[in-house]
Fold each of these.
Amino acid sequence: MSLPFDIGSVFHGFHIDSVADVPDAGGRLWRMTYEKNGAELVWLDRADEVKTFVIAFKTLPEDDTGVAHILEHSVLAGSEKYPVKSPFDEMRKSSVCVFMNAMTSRDATYYPFSTRNDTDLLNLADVYLDAVFHPLVLKDPMAFRQEGWHHELSDDQRELSVNGVVFNEMKGVFASPDNRAYRDVMSALYPDIVYGHDSGGRPEKIPELTYEDFRDFHRRFYHPSNARVFLDGSVKIAEVLEKLDAFLSPYERQEVRAEIGLQAPVEICRRIPYASAAVENKAILALGWSVGTMRDPSYSHAVDVLADYLCGSNEAPLKKALLEQRVCKDAAMGCYDYRQIPLFLILKDTSEENFGAIRKVVHETLEQICRDGIDLPRVLSLIDRDEFAEREMNSRRPKGLAYFSRAVRLWLYGGEPSAALDTTGIYGQLRSGAESGLFERIIRERILENRHRAEIGFLPDPTLAERKAAEDRAVLESLRRKLTPDELRTIAGNVSALKAWQGRDDPAEDIAGIPRIASRDLPPCGSPAEGTVKTSGGVTRIVSRPTAAGVFYLELYFPVNDLPADDLVRLPLFARLLGKLGTARHSAFELQTLIAANIGRVSCSTASAKRGRYFKVSVAALAAKAAAALELVKEVLWETQFDDAGEIEKILRQKQIAAEREAANDGRVLALRAARRALAERWAAADILYGERQLRWLQEQKTDDDLISWCRNMPARLLKRDGLIISHTDNLPEGLLDLMLAGLDPGKRGPAVHIPMTGDRPCAFSIDGDTGFSAWVAPLPENMRTTGPMRVAARILSLGYLHREVREIGGAYGVHMNVTPNGLVECTSYRDPSPFASLKKMNGTGPALRAFVDSGFDIDRFVVATVASMEPYRPPADSAVFFADLYMDERTPEDEERIRHEVLSTTKAHLLRFAELLDSISSCVTTCVVGGERQVRNGGGGQIRPIIYR
């Protein structure tokens, strides 16, 4: 919309500073300043029904207690205008937002949300603004204790422990050696400035944070003079400015010391033990360099492209040299966009004896690149691929958040936000720089000759976890012995008060005061997925409209129902090899260069859907490059050469490392797959493709002649017309696709092979660390379909009973319940200190749902939230294939609309029937826990198997 004022005028207290066209974002960027106190506002005025609002503050911690992170959690736990325990969670029950969260970086804290509804935008802005400026936690420490940390005493008062949501979250973060590598290198590179402090909080330091210091941090940084507001989309700007004026006007300008200094060069070398059940070749070497400042967006993009050029694939020159010398099994490189930009090189599965050799390989390889020059076609192809990604914006977060993420890094450091959105200019500078020696200069000046660097070796220690647990217990025991009887009574009293606070219901009048969207305000029908389905000659073709300008999407589903389990377990590796190995026409390096230049994204994977099991090929590319893109896809599928046993072994081991890391970092996924596999053949097959059985195969498999021969034979077995399903957008020239598929085998596939269901009830897996994940799964009775009221009930239990019992009281970082379209009732907990206790809480969902109904609470809020969850923001690729996804799961847009109608028609009687169903299916529940060894053994969980063998 057009603003009703000119540059230089003042509207609702905001001085209109400037406006700039941003053609690459399809809009204009307005900059404003609130005259009274200096709050800054940027509005990206463009046509988008999804509107985004962010309020951000520079937050500069001076220690590792996690004060910024704990404050981010705590301000959302009640405010003066909304004095309920969590207005944030109450809004999740009655908002149609497509994104709502809060996040802490090393030097700033952000509070973003996105919604399609104008009223919802103002409602959420009101809640967020009152939360950040007037939080109740400044007067009542309960939220600080719940979200941050507090001491607890055993019933006999003989054991002292620490609990808290952020405390448990960060225990999980630091249990991951990958996470520690990046965090510890940051701290080493910048010991004297804010980047040297972990804003998330180190678990051993979090209990040092006092309530007084916590309150002082809010006073120092959460002031309008330190605030930045970002708006995006088709917002009613006058109404939003009026809302902001109401919150900002009481504040005078205040001096906020939030300048980020520059770290003088340091050279750091350290060795740090980390807990690992496995020891041999499990060391990690992390190298870091401070490579410059955020002076312009093209430079940080250049560093990112360089990292991709050096280490983005096994054929990248630095990674290739490291792997060929066998000094590690994997390597990754990346950077962060802070005021001083850190560049990381993380080398995994190595040994301390190899550290010297690694340094030598890195130095010699980079010297050679400087002497010989970069491979210009390769760099230009990577720039092409990055530009495609920037323009497509295929993130599951709304576009407004992507634009904010780009703009805020410059904006925080005094730069012009619009410069970060000039995609054409940025990539033009990158291409020009590549041709004039930019990347060689960065390597020479910012890496080889740079005296601002850090080296940290992480050494596996199989006894560290047990020793650390004993040390922690000893520290707490020592503290307990020093406490006087009065101090012990104070701790017990604080815990009792906290539990009483957590257990109480908010007054009905306070809940009623939370702004809301009512179900009657929602449109009676959703926006159904659209597409056409035609089957001819054994091939099914699904066509939908493109969702990103100039980009086509293509997915090929080749059935693999005829593959037995021993073949199925190998299929994910085969999919990973395609595009990574050379072909009959091109070396692997040449192929990857061509792919980067001509295809935005191409991947091969496996899929387990209700219609069956599939080998899947996914492509996204500019429609203008369709012919070249499809020719390359055809070459990859039909002409890949499987002769390089060494390269196959590297990729196999990298896939193993990734699977082990995923299990440790997000054990929910592994737990869910393990819990499902005893319920149906589909889930047993999914476990083979993605779950524990896949992980065990990766750990045990070697690259031998049998595996290589199997890979060579797979294209002929897979690439047949019979049963093929094709999904594509209608901007893909039909003749090109037919030409690509002309070589398909017309023969029939073999009969479907039965995959037997397996699994223990219950099962448990141990990982390094002492935080856990749980999964609780039960099937609906046979022939019972998923209904709208079931979805509403799951939302009620997720945001109510389970949130209170598992997150607030139990201290888990997250908990969720879902009723899937395919008839499973699922509950999961995340970074959970007591996963077995959480499973017991999950068993109580039936009585909890009845108690909710009996309480008389208005269910309409949850109806709205459920509709919102069914209509999320979908990025371009997901939108393009959503109709196909429904088809693959044997659902239709009409099914989605039926469930939406049922959601809107949900009654308390429906909920009571589902409560009875939850009681009746309790005997069919399967569970799985993934957690630290001591945690799992103490909880008990049937047969316990380690994720990583010693």
Amino acid sequence: MKPLKLTMCAFGSYAGEEVLDFAKLGENGLYLITGETGSGKTTIFDAISYALFGTASGRARNSYKMLRSDYAERRAKTYVELTFSSRGNLYAIRRDIIPHIARKTGEVTSCTDSVALTLSDGTVISRNRDADAKILDVIGLDRDQFAQIVMIAQNDFLRFLQSGTDDRVKILRRIFGTGALKFFQEILKIKAREKDEQRKALLRDFQKYELDPYKREEQFAQWERQVKADESAFQEIDANLNANEEKTKIFAAQIAVAERIAKTFTDLAAQRKALDEHISKQDEMNAVSEQKVRGETALRKIMPFAEKAGEADKALVSASSEFEKAKTDEREAERILTGARKTLADLPPLDSAQEAFDNLRVLWEQTENRLKKLAELKADYDGIVQKQTKFDALNTELAEIEKTILALPSVGEAQAAFDGLKSKLAALTGKQIILGKLQGGFAAILVKQNELAKEQSEFESLTEQYRSARAKYDEMYELFLRGQAGVLSATLATGKPCPVCGSTEHPAPAIPPAEDVSASKLKKLNDDAEKVKGKLDHKAAACASAQTETATLAERLLHDSTELFDGASLQTIGVLLTDSTEQVSAAVSESVAKKKSDEKALSELILQTENTARRKEELTPQGAALQAEIATQKIRFLKDLREFLPNAGFDTAGADLEKLLAETKSSSEKLTEKKNKDQSSLATIKNNFDNAAQALAESELKLVSARILADERESRVKEREILAAAARNSYQGVLAENGFADAESYAAALITEEELAALTKAAAGYAENGKLIRREIARLESETADKAEVDLEKLNSHADELKQNTGKLRAERDETKARLDNTARILKELKRSAASLVKIEKEYAALKGLSDTANGRLDFETYTQTAYFERVLRAANLRLKVMSQNRYVLLRRQEGGDGRKRTGLEIEVADSYTGRSRSANSLSGGESFMASLSLALGLSDVVQQTAGGIHLDAMFIDEGFGSLDAEVLELSVRTLSDMAGGSRIVGIISHVLELRERIDKQVRVDKTPGGSKIRLVV
């Protein structure tokens, strides 16, 4: 793809239409886009990218509101049009940004865009989606690929060099189309996950029934035994239910017969009552029949003649009215025709007025052209004066900078003083840290002493508790021993030997003690005492431990504080630590404040020194360039001005121009006023003549039409009179023939078709209803002749008992069947799941191993991309070696540091000066630019080699050259020039002055208060 012509209107920093003809820059070579900061250099790249892809070259400028020019008038059209060639064919594409403006506020509320892509055969594509697809097909790159390979935006320039493997994988995926491998990896991951889900689902089937899938056979056998038992029980219940249902059917038949007989007796009584009501309506139906006969005669025999007579009278009245209107229209048409002939005859001649206006317009156009040229000269003069003012201000600023440089203090002396302060602060901080540690140790000792006192207090309390518990036990044990004789005497009986003395006589047995002293109670007291004893022993150990720890901490603290407090004791060190800490903290705070103040002053001094030097370096060449530019523009301006004032000089040019402009503007205004007035008069004359001629023709046509219409309507009136008389005679004859004295009696008898149908239906329905009732009575009497009514209540009671029994049996059967079906279903499902589990676990193991391999740290896609990536690095190193003078070589790192991250596309730089490799992120600004530029060129080479349909005839680079020294800048320009030596063009954006001197072909962007302008320097 090679751009040939770019047109921008109300786009970015350009208010009006600006045209950039790339063809004038030649078929190949290097050209520079230069201008002031903010003038709109990058906007040219934005326009090319927007025309091709609908987005700007930089992602930060992609909203429609940012692309539309703030300098443009509110309703100005915003568009970009690009003509370009690709593979020998010409294409043109135009995109318009359409603002939507609120009616009330006049503000732009939103924007949309439109596109028109003209192909080499003249076909135009106007749908965004189709145009984008065709651009992708023609160029072979999408927007992201284009931004990485062809048009490298300022913010995206270092992204490929400094990104990691994950970001480079995405970039190379778009460029080399390795997405299919990524898709394959994802498919493997998804398949393994799906197979694992299937395996887990099968395991959940077993977990749902709390069954170990690997010990399932025992449970399967138990469920099979239960299935057989439930099948036997189900058959027995089902047989009982069938017998009960047969009895139910017999009772149901008997009840149906009884209900039918009862209904027959009820229907007979109802029909006899209906017959009595029918007979009572006979007189009413006779009157209905008489009304029907007379109404039918009026409706069918007389009404057609009455309607025909009425319609004939109406037609006669209508025809008479239309005839009178036609005569009135004829008289009005004759009057209008006479007026139109008079108006046309009174109009003035047209040819002389047209000739005078044409002469005036020629004079006005000459004056307008003169005024336009003078206005352009005034704008050029103002621009030169503005630049002269800027040049004077620049010289003044340079003089002030020289004074500032001489007045600034020495940075070296300030740095030395600051370094001494930092050393002092470091020593104080170290002492503060030591004191903090000692204070921490002393605080720990105090904590331990408090803990020891607490432990000792608790030990004394437990000692007292143990003594009390042991005393209670000893007292109870003594009572227990004394009471054993009384306990034994309770078991003695006369004639039975004593277990102690053997006597069978017991004359004075011992009396049992008043208090119950059992062995269990004694044991409980002993257990309580032992529990307290255990706590006492534990607490004694804790006291000993705390005492040892306290002594150890004290010994360590005194040893560590010897350097600061030699001879101090544990009783005095606390006070010493507090006093020393306060003193050192105060000194540190004072030093920190002074360091902060001095550091700020040093930074400001360094920044001021660097800014002043940098500003001087920037202003010196700017002043020289501005001085040369002013001289050139003055020569061109005076040449153009002397076409109007042959002896004009620049010193008096402003006043001379003002005078010429005022005179020419006055003449133009007078001529414009007269032209507008004469043009309006001429238009009025033309309009009056056309209107009069048209009115005459229309009047003549209307008169002819009115006369014809009046004749037609007079004939129609005579016809309607004859027809109306005949219709009235027929109507009077029919009335007499059918027994009606006059029209009033006819009207009284007349009924509608609906009323006639209702009367007919009522008469017929009455007769038919009587027949039906009598016939139904005869039938019902025949059916009940030999029958008697049955006791339905008794039959229904027996049926309900059978129904309840049937319900119980059915519920029992359903419960058994549900349990049987559920057990059989579970057994069947789990057997099927067991068979599937064996198969799926084998498949899952194979898939998981393959997925883990494909999606590891060096996955399939990244592995494939390493081959492309190494080719890119080899191509990039051909340029980088030249630009870095054989110092740097880009390498692909073979091993990654973080085992958790994907690796394979990391870049490191081999430095021939050190003989070692290091990260690409460690390069300086200028070195990073060289490496990034080399990568971009290498990527472009490899894309064209690997994608046969892509041929890149152009490359655009936005900024970055300002970070290069003179020698490296020369090597970079030479590299780009060699690259553009064939049929390729290379455009770069930069404000670096050396490039303006080095590159002959230039696109200069001039910033003005009303928007930027483009100039070509070839």
Amino acid sequence: MADVLTASFIERLRNLVQADAIEGWKVCEDCAIEDISSQSFTKIELNDKRYLVWEKGHKVRWFYQEFVLPEVIDEYPLSGLTLRLALTWWAELAEVYVNDQKVQEGDLFDHSCRIVLSSNVVPGEKVSVAIRLVSPGHDIGGLMRSRLIYESDYDEIDPGFVADELEVIQSYIDAFELDQLEIEFDWKVSDRQKFHQSLEALRSSLLPLSSRIKQHTIFLLGHAHLDMAWLWDVEETWRAAERTFVSVLNLQKDFPELTFCHTTPALYEWIEQNRPEIFAQIQAQVKAGKWEIVGGMWVEPEMNLINAESIARHLLYGQRYCQEKFGEICCVAWLPDTFGFNWQTPQFLKLAGIDYFVTQKLRWNDTTQFPYEWFNWQAPDGSQVKSLMSSPIGEGIEPIKMAKFAWDWVKKTGQPNALWLFGVGDHGGGPTRDMLEIAERWKRSPFFPKLEFTTALNYLESLEDPENTWNDELYLEFHRGCYTTHGDQKRFNREAEARLHLVEIDASLSSSMASSEYLKTDLEEAWKIVLFNQFHDILPGSSIREVYNTALVKQFEFGDILDKVYGKSNIGTQIKLPAPPHPEAELVVVFNPSSWERSGIVTADLTKSVSDERNWKICNLNGEDIQVQIEKSWINTGEFCIYCYSFWAETIPSVGYRCFWLYPGEPLLLDTNVSSDEFILENEFIKAIVDPQTGSLSSVFDKIQHREILNGLGNELQAFQDSGQYWDAWNIDPNYAKYPLESAKLLEIKYRKWISLIPGVEVKRAIGESIFHQWYYLEPDSPVLNIYTSVNWKKRHVLVKAAFPLNLKVNFATYEMAGGAIERTTRPETEAEKAKWEVPALGWVDLNDGEYGVSLLSDCKHGFDCQSDQIRLTLLRGSEFPDPKADLDSHEFTYTLYPHAGTWKTAQTTRKAAELLQPLEVFTLAQPSKDGTLPPFHSFLDLQSDNLILSSLKQSEDNPDEYILRCYECHGGPAELNLKGDFEIVEALDLLERPLQVSTQIRPWEIRTYRIKKRQNQKEGIF
């Protein structure tokens, strides 16, 4: 009797038809395939993993081997079998030649193949194989697998196939703790026919297990993850998509059962416009149920660093495109590769008609295993989507791996049937013919789960409801550097989101109040530029330099589009004013795009003749002078001069404006003299002292609450060595804190105005050859201390943080996320909590004890780590792969310290962060309208709620005479929207602008969308 399921038995059986060929390769450097036979080859040693490796840096290596096909292996006859060579490499380019003919190409992602060396083995036959591999720029190259596999016709068995069946059976027995089996077996292999009879007898004796295994089904779904840009530029993405889609369409002709899913309306739009014949075939396959459109978002975006309105637009444009082109919206959010997901994601998805969420990325966690495979994911407002932690992407049809995945799925979920995604991915590719042929063979095995093709939606709908609920963010314990890498992309994204918010509001008001043209197509084009650049390898900073060169071009296009749209604004011309205080007075209009009343410093330009040496002053509409600072900025031409003027604009109403006059006269100047014996900044709220020895803050005193907030030097620039990570741009070294570098060196400190009215302290510090140029400044009547930073960054593999030790001891820190906020512990106890040693925030973080707190606001830096008494903000990194010049040279950003009484809610931290990102807008009108109908002080729209944030005001997608108002509750409490102003609510909508039945009261953390129209009378309406 033999235990036929032992590893030694299975390996002995497999070795009758398989042989490792890794040691037989000879190597030379680059040449032409025509010259391969004349090259001088050498042998290289295997490393500890039995890989053949060579140096990084696009180095070419040829591997060459001649195979003489044997008559037998261990007496088992091989004549007439099919011989395949299974290869796996790590190379940015791979070319495989058989007898001097190219038979296969690949790259880092299409990195495995099984090529036929002989379809009918004749003993003594000679086959030559040459492989040309190019090492990656960032990593060594490698040939890791080289195995000869002799197989029978797929209608027959062979020892290798039976060995795989036995391993599948053993995995089943192990998984479900069944009794082991011992069966008689005859090892006489020299007579192949008789030996196959022994194999059949062995299989027959195991048939009692078949019915149990066949109770399970592995559903198959073809997939080809395609990054919109990563280690290739966008133009290559289009080519890869075309190759992938054509390949799938051709395979579906030969394998009509094959189902395939793919995301990304942005990609389909390009195919539609540039390859209409392919697009038509895809539409036909979608209609036939063989091609599934999944995702529902414009691209597969980064989800931690974009704001609520960006997520809404991904869904709006993505879903409406799918509805228009394919006849239905997506019900499955498909984000397999995004680097973590903010907690509000389920609510966004539900509001866009999506019931299911699929990812596999948390399988990449470096510390803990995510506890659920199939679960309800709940947002803070209570919204839920059914969520699947899918099988890994980029896999082939590998029965043993598939079986083990299926048994694990059954044990964890209790659900009998698993879903397996197969197909080459990352750079596209999708299913291959070899994968499909292997699947067909294993369909016939009695010892493998049933195999059926399906769609994602059909599979998800077949599952029983999840038993578990996850009520938290989906934090990826990996890729923590992506909150910081390529700071230029983060800055553009935040500024673009803010500018789109302003310009859409302005366009909506101009259209509704002044009948100007609303450039809807242009605004959508601008949005799609931003959305594309939010792709999960572009915005996180993990793409090659060429991708960012293209992104820069698109950023200029974005600016041109918004300048065009903004140029259509004519609200100012509709303002009717009393007589000006001076014949040459110009109207100054200060506009507030926020949904609450604001005050602040505004700055604008004044163009005058070079010969005009007069002074200029500002007054309000009552004729009362306002303190103003006017400075000559730069000479435009020989005839005109540009002046920059700044003043404090007070009580600008919600989504409205207030007018002022600019006219010749002696201005009322603000005394900007400051003490020279200490570097002190002070207003009625804060007294801040800059340490003259370090340039850090030695004191920040809250004058209202009579508290010193710092417990040590604040804004201390801390540098750490950050190297040794394979995923360089993505990952921060987990042990970075053990490798501190020399502190920043103070180069210069002096008093210097920030802008016009605002005194400041200017500090220059150096970390190595990198210069940090910072201004501390306090605006009048403002409770926040601003720190503007300009850096010429030169370091590689160095991490820089700004540290703020605080006189607080708290258990939790609160961080802003898209459409809300999330608490994370400052005293981690579990392994999962400890893994959150670097976390994302959208625009602010706050530490408070319920009675007092400190917020740190940031305009475009998103990586934080907090302790119970400290906030640290990550400013810069120095990664080299995949972009060796990432973050080198110039950076500008601002972060702000905001001490406050009470909680971040009572202190309106969310509003303060929005004000940092979205300043008041100001423009001048030399000739105001005499026939205007708008008053000189006006609020177009007021939400009348302290805990509602306006997310968007835009034209309706379906009716140009109506508009869309979107807002969200930001404090975790109930809210009432009592809309005042020039608009009235028609009805509530979802994110796709479809009617939605909701209560009048807004739930905590809820996102609300309304269809509104211009009010027909002057009475204020209440919804």
